[in-house]
Amino acid sequence: MSAEVVLPAGDDLQTTIDWFADIAGFKMTMITPADEPRISVLSGHGLTIRLDSSASGPSGSIRIPDTDPRTVTAPNGTTVQFVTTQDRLELPKNAAEFVHSRFADADFGAGRAGMQYRDLIPNRQGGRFIASHIAIPEGGPVPDYVHHHHVRFQMIFCHTGWADLVYEDQGPPFRMQAGDCVLQPPHIRHRVLATSDRFEVVEIGCPAVHDTLRDHELELPTAVVDLDRDFGGQRFVWHRAEGAISNPRPDGSTFTNFGIDAATDGLATVGIVDQPSSLDSAFELLFWFVRSGNALLDGEPVTARDAITFAPGHSHALTEISPDFQVLQVQL
Question: What's the pTM?
């Protein structure tokens, strides 16, 4: 016997049974008693419902995947929402604006598993992007589980400390250290195993609100290793800071490319810029997280752990740049 959701049957049990069968695609599996039915069990869409003529209380609401989204009401009062499947990703219209999130004014909120969150783009660009500065003061094993995200883009950059991670089809667990970055393609299964003390990362995702789904069946690491596997048009990337090569740019700065542009077919370019002296804000997202040093941006001081989101079409002046000024740059 499977678990059942109990719903009131309404004024006429048979009418409600017929509706759930004809409109919602359920199949009746039990009815009792035979001479004067008062209870019926129906199954469908991975759900079992028990219609009970003696039940009282709310009529409930059911969501059913369907290609034709609509909302209807059953004779017993149950609301049935037919919704498009999770494979369809809704992206809010981009509402970019300039944001300077100063570390000196940082307000970290409590998150799950001892994590502390700082919101780096409070307006979320209209819901299109989320950027978080996440800190774990006291490390150790992380009570995480195998999960995946329904996203267009998601990356994690390690600012300080380390974390042990494992990803689907990417081999055994590995240690992401300060300066490393991972690109998490859509729906790649993964798990955080442990972190160091004073662990800090910057995480950027699109859209800002997205589903996180738990996988109860898959065990990580997987027996299969496929480093070039395609996940929703993207490949997994683990950029290692150790041994990374910086290349000069025309403005006199240097750029360390993390390889995310190639792995996302040009959707995103991510890397470290040393001594930036100019910027091009003509992007859907142009984001800086200051790793070290200081400068003046439009006359305002910019220091380590500050985050800046630039709005397209606006110019800015960067002056009094210290020799150690370095930023993580993300552009989509």
Answer: 0.84
